[in-house]
Amino acid sequence: MAWFRRRRREDPEVAQNTWLVVGLGNPGAQYAGNRHNVGQMVLDELAGRLGAAFRSHKTPSRVAEGFLRPGGPKLVLAKPNSYMNTSGGPVSALAKFYDVPAERLVVVHDELDLPFDTVRLKQGGGHGGHNGLRDISKALGADYLRVRVGIGRPPGRQDPADFVLKDFSGTERQSLPNLLADAADAVEAIADDGLLAAQQRFHAPS
Fold first, then answer.
1. Which regions of the chain are under pLDDT 70?
2. Close Cβ partners of 79 (under 8 Å, ≥ 6 residues apart)
3. Binding of tRNA: at which residues (predicted)?
């Protein structure tokens, strides 16, 4: 772990306003469009807004960094190279590398228990059967922030494990850009205004 100590020191004010945003998913082109990878799709939206590109990182993950605006919060966007079920190791390594506490770690993930096109925010709590969250909580504790991106329940008797590993339907894909934009807005609101203010904005009845 010696490479943690070799990281270039940042300005203390920047370090105290740095947010680690992790998008969960599975690596590889065959999974890129899956519902389970919606967290990483949200990070692509955020990286586009920041004008940042994902690059290989030693943690191991792919990382993009940028500021919301000059003098504003810094976002470290990270996509673990591991499969969903083993997300804990890379996320723990990222948190140590960037020296980010749980209250500035935001995990963006798919959520079966929310209707499609819904975004909800929370801190802590259980994993709800989500294996990525389960592994992160095992490695770091459960007090990190979550941006929960609703994908809905599978129709009929379809196995949820199969459902999350399928691409969004044609109808869903028409609304998907709006969903990704809303989730990216939620991440920015957390970093800018804090969790409570972001919840009041995104949980308000439409």
1. 1-10, 206
2. 22, 23, 25, 27, 40, 43, 54, 61, 62, 63
3. 31, 83, 85, 131
Q: Report if pTM > 0.85.
A: yes
* pLDDT per residue as tens digits for the range 188-201: 999 999 999 999 99
Q: What is the Cα–Cα distance from 44 to 52, expressed in whole angstroms?
A: 9
Other residues' Cβ atoms within 10 Å of the Cβ of residue 92? 16
Q: Cβ contacts of residue 203 below 8 Å, gap of 6+?
A: 120, 121
Q: Which residues are catalytic?
A: 36
Quote the pLDDT of residue 117: 92
**77: β partners:** 21, 64
> Is 98 known as a binding-site position?
no
* In contact, 111 and 24? CB cutoff 8 Å: no
Phi, psi of 66 (to 5 degrees): -175, 170
Compute the distance between CA of residue 173 and CA of residue 88 in angstroms, rounded to an integer: 29
CA–CA gap between residue 89 and residue 77 (Å, rounded)? 16
Closest CA to 130 of 111, 144, 150: 111
The answer to whether the annotation marks 83 as part of a ligand binding site is yes
